[in-house]
Design a protein that fits this description.
about 525 residues; alpha/beta; FAD/NAD(P)-binding domain; 7-stranded mixed sheet; 6-stranded antiparallel sheet; 12 helices; binds flavin-adenine dinucleotide; binds iron/sulfur cluster
């Protein structure tokens, strides 16, 4: 496509960019997507090699952190605050879905109205029911394994493939939840358990974060992108956007980007959609300074980059006498509990959390924490393969002081200012995590654990809130259709647009929002000039 004959320019080819580009191109819209990374060849995945675990335990080029991986297409993210987070993302066609585990819960209806229900944060300007048809469409496009009927969530359509097996660790957790009478259900996964749309089912070999060679895990390079390209969408890889350009009236013209060899290119489009994730998006908006937007595009109210949320967590492990073989099977979660999801003020905090039964990494990862020496093997034999994991996904309410800004020293390989994340746990989140540790310990003990290991709190790879959705320009960056309030032809479609973060993994909601935004962009096509 020529650089000045484009309807919609999409920036970022991850989960959101892929879903949106598919939907727009299926409507006949001319879409070009600029992506700073390339296509990842599955034969290069660590999961194909015997030393696969070293890629996460040392500075390997498949490390979860862009700072440790340090590929040319990565950008540095410096971290600050009382609880500087461990930032995880992947920069390539498919984005962070290359690494993800495919755990695929939906928000609860209550998550969209926490101000009304609990007098905290803000309500979203849309409801669960606005997103429901798009959740369903996205499930169909990816192929989800799971089981409809969970009493803690609204009814949903039949899952495309049956649930993944619970395994020994899953059955052990069920025993604990059942004895306590707590809610549990099998998880929905963006991982297929039977052949679906030409993709092979999961082989249960447990290396999902190291790249799924089967294509069973729904990475968007294997799901949406081939279909979008068939519809005429074009991806330009190794194309890193430096800034979004605007005309004299304050409308976006397009973007300036560095191509693979570092040449500066300009591209024009009628509409620009930013899908660079909860850190990459505010970084790009803040880097897009002009006379009309001296503090960054869409940032006249100073809210771009504020209210960063990342889901605080604890990875709690129960150690059992019997072998649990938790490293076998998809690294995602066979089951979850939402017993403590909705607000109950008697617990001492507002909103709540999900517990997910989580499989463990393999032997190398677990050996790291055991001192070397004569006793190493005996100590290792006590924990491997005897552990069962519970991961907390805590609802991280927005705080203006948790931010993504531009770093004034670090730059990426094209000389563009890096991102700086500043994050501290709120008192509410701390109380929620303490409660989750107590409850996880209780259920693991009841399930038969002889010991429970509780490492310090950390965070998940869920980047949210930095260009939040709201009813007006005072309280938000984008409107209910993901359009930037102050720029009539720019949309932000990723976790940045979350008003609140809920207590579940975010990607099914990110992708449902992307499919909805594509419909809204289409509805407004008569206004494009
Ligand atoms: C280890 C790991 C496990 C995870 N597990 C789960 C899970 O089980 N369930 C779940 O719901 N979520 C999970 N996630 C999170 C999930 O991957 C993300 O929520 C999702 O991919 C976000 O989608 P996105 O499109 O907003 O961003 P991304 O998928 O991160 O894509 C953003 C893309 O934008 C590109 N980009 C950024 N800046 C620029 C620029 N200036 N120019 C050009 N391109 C640019 C990037 O290269 C990247 O490809 C996991 C993530 C990780 C890392
Ligand atoms: S366990 Fe399944 S989803 Fe995970 S990498 Fe293996 S085949 Fe892919």
């Amino acid at each position: 496509m020529k650089n000045d004959d484009i309807d919609v320019l999409v920036i970022g080819a991850g989960a959101a960019g892929a879903a949106l580009s598919w939907s727009l191109s299926a409507k006949g819209i001319k879409v070009v997507c600029l992506e700073q990374g390339g296509w990842i060849d599955p034969s290069t995945f660590p999961s194909m090699k015997h030393d696969y675990e070293t890629q996460l335990t040392r500075e390997g080029d498949f490390n979860l952190s862009p700072n440790l991986r340090n590929r040319k297409e990565d950008y540095p993210v410096t971290t600050h605050g009382e609880n500087p987070p461990f930032v995880m993302m992947f920069n390539a066609v498919g984005g962070s879905t290359i690494h993800w585990q495919g755990i695929f819960p939906r928000f609860h209806p209550s998550d969209f109205k926490v101000k009304t229900l609990d007098d905290v944060a803000d309500d979203w300007p849309i409801s669960y029911w606005d997103l429901e048809p798009y959740y369903d469409l996205n499930d169909k496009m990816l192929g989800v394994s799971g089981l409809a009927g969970d009493p803690a969530n609204p009814p949903r359509s039949k899952r495309q493939t049956p649930p993944l097996p619970l395994g020994k660790m899953g059955h052990t957790l069920v025993k604990g939840f059942e004895k306590l009478g707590w809610h549990w259900w099998v998880n929905d996964h963006g991982i297929i358990s039977e052949p679906y749309n030409g993709r092979s089912p999961c082989m249960l070999h447990g290396k999902c974060m190291f790249g799924c060679p089967m294509g069973a895990k729904a990475t968007t390079d294997r799901t949406y992108w081939p279909l979008a390209i068939d519809h005429g969408a074009e991806i330009r890889t190794w194309s890193r956007v430096k800034e979004i350009t605007v005309d004299k009236t304050g409308k976006a013209k397009g973007a300036i980007y560095f191509d693979k060899v570092g040449n500066v290119q300009e591209i024009k489009a009628k509409v620009v959609v930013v899908c660079c994730n909860g850190i990459g998006t505010p970084r790009l908006l803040l880097n897009s300074k002009s006379n009309l937007f001296p503090d960054g595009l869409g940032n006249s109210n100073g809210l771009v980059g504020k209210n960063f949320m990342i889901h605080p967590t604890h990875f709690i492990n129960g150690v059992f006498e019997e072998a649990m073989d938790s490293h076998i099977g998809p690294m995602g979660s066979p089951l979850f509990s939402q017993e403590f999801y909705e607000t109950d003020e008697s617990r001492g905090f507002t909103r709540g959390y999900m517990l997910i039964g989580e499989r463990t990494f393999g032997p190398l990862f677990q050996a790291q924490d055991i001192p070397w020496g004569k006793a190493h093997h005996a100590e290792f034999g006590k924990i491997f393969p005897h552990q069962v994991g519970l991961t907390v996904v805590a609802d991280d309410l927005p705080e203006e002081t948790n931010t993504v800004t531009l770093d004034d020293k670090e730059v990426d390989s094209n000389g563009i200012a890096a991102a700086k994340v500043t994050y501290s746990l709120s008192e509410n989140s701390k109380r929620m995590l303490d409660h989750a540790v107590r409850k996880s310990t209780e259920v693991l003990r009841v399930a038969g654990a002889k010991d429970v290991i509780v490492p310090p709190p950390t965070n998940l790879a869920h980047l949210m809130g930095t260009a939040r959705m709201g009813t007006n320009e005072k309280n938000s960056v984008v409107d209910k259709n993901n359009k930037v309030h102050s720029v009539s032809n720019v949309y932000v479609v990723d976790g940045s647009s979350f008003t609140t973060g809920a207590g579940v993994n975010p990607t099914s909601t990110i992708m449902a929002l992307a499919l909805r935004a594509a419909d809204k962009i289409w509805e407004e096509r008569m206004e494009w000039k």
